[in-house]
Design goal:
InterPro entries: AraC_lig (IPR032783), AraC_XylS_family_regulators (IPR050204), Homeodomain-like_sf (IPR009057), HTH_AraC (IPR018060), HTH_AraC-typ_CS (IPR018062)
Keywords: DNA-binding, Transcription, Transcription regulation
Protein name: AraC-like DNA-binding protein
Largest sheet: 5 strands, antiparallel
Number of helices: 12
Number of strands: 5
Number of domains: 2
Strand order of the largest sheet: 1-4-2-3-5
Radius of gyration: 20 Å
Structural class: alpha+beta
Length: 255
């Protein structure tokens, strides 16, 4: 009897971003100046949703379609959230090909158009699921330019990225990450740089600092944050933080 190799278990490529950065939504006809994206639900005259679009950058500023059922500004941590800067400017999903997303979008439209108790909480949770499912689609479609989205789309490298996201404080060795990705050390290093656009060490350092920025903005102490994200000392953390953001960690509380 021939034994078949067990399939590689799937890993969650997006949960780390939703854990680290809060998502909120505000209904608005156009993107608010400080929002990260504009979510549009497009449909027909009978309030039947047909398509959802997540727009960033100039696409969000210029968008003015006539068939908008609901428009909402999405806040997801700003530029410090890596997934925000990695997103394409225009992601559109037809609901005829996504029945689960259609059901959630229909609920979102109903909550947006009818004033009910708990409306704000319902809109926030439904929007989070819609954004999550749109990002899944973007990852499934891949990316043509090096960056985080390309890394999350890569059939092997995404496992190493998820490991870094889930355990940023761990002292990672290249050999461990290569093994997680199922690649040789040399092939892993080349593929990571070509696909993500930087080295694993540089990516991990940037991820740690973004997590630290979020924690400091919420009032955490510098020393505890430094240890939490994997820096050996508060001094080393302060130097790295200042290089990344242009001001010391204490400045995060005022930003």
């Amino acid at each position: 009897m021939i034994e078949r190799p067990s399939p590689t278990p799937k890993v969650d490529r997006l949960s780390a971003f939703f854990r680290a950065f809060d998502l909120s939504v505000q209904l608005s006809e156009s993107r608010e100046p400080d929002a990260d994206a504009l979510l549009l639900v497009l449909g027909d005259s009978h309030r039947q949703a047909e398509q959802v679009a997540l727009l960033t950058g100039e696409r969000a500023v210029q968008a003015s379609p006539s068939n908008v059922l609901v428009a909402a500004s999405v806040y997801f941590g700003g530029a410090v959230n890596p997934i925000v800067s990695a997103m394409p400017e225009d992601i559109q999903v037809g609901l005829s090909e996504a029945p689960t997303l259609r059901a959630i979008t229909d609920a979102f439209v109903e909550e947006a158009l009818d004033a009910r108790c708990g409306r704000t909480a319902a809109l926030g949770r439904l929007c989070e699921v819609i954004v999550l499912m749109i990002l899944r689609r973007a990852i499934d479609n891949g990316a043509t330019q090096p960056g985080l989205l390309a890394g999350l789309s890569h059939p092997a490298l995404h496992r190493a990225l998820v490991a870094l996201h889930d355990a940023p404080a761990r002292i990672w060795r290249i050999e461990e990450l290569a093994e997680i990705a199922g690649m040789s050390r040399s092939r892993f290093m080349v593929s990571f740089r070509e696909t993500v656009g930087t080295t694993p060490a540089a990516y991990l350092s940037a991820w740690r600092l973004k997590l630290a920025h979020r924690a400091l903005a919420e009032g955490a102490r510098v020393k505890s944050v430094a240890l939490r994200v994997g820096f050996g000392s508060a001094a080393a953390f302060s130097r790295a933080y200042s290089r990344e953001f242009g001001y010391p960690p204490a400045g995060a509380r005022h930003e």
